[in-house]
TrEMBL record:
SMART domains: AAA, ANK
Gene Ontology cellular component terms for the protein in this record: cytoplasm; mitochondrion
Database matches in InterPro entries: AAA+_ATPase, Ankyrin_rpt, Ankyrin_rpt-contain_sf, ATPase_AAA_core, Clp_ATPase_C, ClpA/B, ClpA_ClpB, P-loop_NTPase
Organism for this UniProt entry: Daphnia pulex (Water flea)
Pfam families: AAA_2 (PF07724), Ank (PF00023), Ank_2 (PF12796), ClpB_D2-small (PF10431)
AAA+ ATPase domain boundaries: 257-405
Sorted UniProt keywords: ANK repeat, ATP-binding, Nucleotide-binding
ANK repeat positions: 80-112, 149-181
Record-given protein name: AAA+ ATPase domain-containing protein
Gene Ontology BP annotations: cellular response to heat
Gene3D superfamilies: 1.10.8.60, Ankyrin repeat-containing domain (1.25.40.20), P-loop containing nucleotide triphosphate hydrolases (3.40.50.300)
Single GO molecular function: ATP binding
Length: 587
């Protein structure tokens, strides 16, 4: 039997003394095996020896501070997973804990050491060597069979019941609510009532501190700015959504009902992307915080069971519903119901209960409460009316802006912000929605109707530039060439914009006109490394941009790294092909 670093042998009695040789043989084999592993274990200790870990283990705060000032990383990890702060905490060396925290140690880093056997298999080492290293360089007071993955320094301080280390870590901002891989928080390891009371008080303080930090960050970096960094245009939609989210965060909302949006507008203008960015803002660290359902999959009555789960006795009962199963895991998720107008009316009945009461009953009869969730529906209903109205408003605003700048020549052209009137919503959009959904109570549960407008000329330029930047980076990474263009190229590519398809039409236009040209040129001519590729527009005729109605052509020219002049490339694949195609010969 192996206990610590010693073998113990208990006497074995048997009627036949010859059998006594068996345990001695087993003992000899184990000793021999340990001898063969001795060099490996010594090598293990040599490799893993580090002055910062050694000083933390011995409680030498002066040496720890000197090493950190000389460049040692206080957050470095031992090859088996722990940090110097973990060592100091599990040893109860409060002075070392304070020094490491002052030098920048992160109190919330978790231990990567699972247990002896798992770590030995992971590293390809012998378990005896791993256990010896754990005991000598970390602690010999822990259960080597237990799993310590995710344990923070605060966990270890609670395990050894060291109030001074616990207080030092909490004062430094350690999160008392962090759970290890087993789901246990530091308070679960507290041995005394005083320790538990201390941790409970700090849990409340920490939550308040996190809320204050989040509020301060929101003041310095509002949600509108975050969304505008990811989404081009749609300022009115962003403002509406951000305002509603801000009311929710501040508690200025009916907490008995979830927040419900209906995004209206044509395809490819940012409805889905805005929903994703809202989810990233509200649930940044949760992969389950965004639930997307394509409602075109629920066009038939019997498909309601897919949403909430089949009742007992029916196929799919054990699988659960696609919505209820995910909401059970994350009741505060952002739920995107894409193309909700395609769903069966019975699905809308289920959603009506969900929006009205913030709860939903699955096929097993269990109720899932999700009053803190946010539901975002998208629809293409009334998209033509919204697009035409937005284009009319934009034209009127541009005419008025030009008139103002004409009267005041020094004035700059103001940015144009569109706003849909209440009359348009009530007398144009709502009748279309009511005619389709057939019920006022469903529309009455929607908090905000959010309108998405066609892109302006400036926004189209941003979209085209974003696409060209993407392909320029790919050309640089793959072929080590630089791609450039001018404003006329942007104008020419913007002509491919289709209001019905939104940004997708711009993406496809860039692929047709630019990416195909680059691909063909690279295939038949090749790109020398370090070359400069330049896109330009050929208007034909007299070469004037006034001939833009003649279908301007995107052209490509290249300048080698050591060359002065550009070489023209044809935009026609026919011209790029070799003049003589070699005949295939059979072997």
């Amino acid at each position: 039997m192996y206990n610590g670093r010693r073998f113990r042998h208990s006497s074995y009695s048997s009627p036949n003394d010859n059998f006594r040789v068996i345990p001695f043989m087993a003992f000899g084999i184990m000793v021999a095996h340990c001898a063969t592993e001795d060099d490996e274990n010594k090598k293990l200790s040599t490799i893993y020896d580090h002055p910062l870990f050694r000083a933390a283990k011995k409680g030498n705060a002066i040496a720890v501070e000197r090493l950190c000032k000389n460049g040692a990383d206080p957050n470095q990890r031992h090859p088996l997973g722990w940090t110097p702060l973990h060592v100091a905490a599990v040893q109860g060396n409060v002075d070392v804990v304070k020094v490491l925290l002052k030098c920048g140690a992160n109190p919330d880093l978790g231990d990567d050491f699972s247990n002896v056997n798992l770590k030995a298999r992971e590293k390809g080492l012998h378990w005896l060597g791993v256990m010896e290293t754990r005991e000598e360089e970390f602690s010999d007071r822990l259960n080597n069979r237990a799993t310590f993955s995710g344990c923070t320094a605060l966990h270890y301080a609670c395990i050894i019941d060291d109030a001074a280390c616990v207080a030092a870590l909490l004062d430094a901002g350690a999160n008392p609510s962090l759970a290890n891989l087993g789901g246990h928080k530091p308070i679960d390891y507290a041995n005394s009532d005083a320790m538990r009371e201390l941790l409970e008080s700090y849990i409340i303080k920490y939550e308040d501190m996190v809320k204050e930090r989040a509020a301060e960050e929101r003041r310095k970096y509002p949600l509108e700015l975050r969304l505008k960094e990811k989404i081009i245009g749609q300022e009115a939609a962003i403002a509406t959504v951000a305002s509603a989210i801000r009311r929710k965060e501040g508690g200025w909302i009916d907490e008995e009902h979830p927040l419900v949006f209906l995004f209206l507008g044509s395809s490819g203008i940012g409805k889905t992307e805005l929903a994703k960015q809202v989810s990233n803002y509200l649930n940044p660290k949760s992969s389950e915080g965004f639930i997307r359902l394509d409602m075109s999959e629920y066009q038939n009555k019997h498909e309601v069971a897919k949403l909430i789960g089949s009742p007992p006795g029916y196929v799919g009962y054990e699988e659960g519903g696609q919505l209820t199963k995910k909401l059970k895991k994350c009741p505060n998720a952002v739920v995107l119901l894409d193309e909700v107008d395609k769903a069966h009316p019975d699905v809308l009945t289920v959603l009506l209960q969900l929006f009205d009461e913030g709860r939903i009953t699955d096929g097993r009869g269990k109720t899932i409460f999700c009053k803190d969730a946010i539901f975002i529906m998208t629809s293409n209903l009334a998209n033509d009316e919204i697009a035409d109205h937005a284009l009319q408003l934009r034209h009127e605003a541009e005419v008025a802006a030009k008139q103002r700048t004409k009267n005041d020549k020094e004035a700059e052209m103001p940015s144009i912000s569109l706003c849909i009137s209440r009359e348009f919503c009530e007398f144009i959009v709502r009748p279309i929605l009511k005619r389709h959904f057939g019920r006022d109570e469903f529309l009455g549960r929607i908090n905000e109707f959010v309108f998405f407008f066609p892109f302006s000329r400036n926004e189209l330029h941003q979209l085209v530039k974003k696409e060209l930047d993407f392909w320029a980076k790919k050309a640089k990474d793959r072929y080590d060439v630089d791609l450039s263009w001018d404003g006329q190229v942007l104008d020419a590519l913007c002509l491919g914009y289709n209001v019905a398809y939104g940004a997708r039409s711009v993406k496809y236009e860039v692929e047709r006109e630019v990416v195909s040209l680059l691909s063909n040129s690279q295939q038949f001519h090749g790109f020398p490394r370090g070359a400069l590729l330049q896109l330009y527009v050929d208007y034909g005729g007299n070469g004037s941009s006034t001939d833009s109605a003649r279908n301007p052509q995107i052209r490509l020219r290249i300048k080698n790294k050591d060359s002065v002049e550009f070489t023209e490339f044809s935009s026609s694949v026919r011209h790029l092909l070799p003049t003589a195609v070699p005949q295939r010969t059979d072997p």
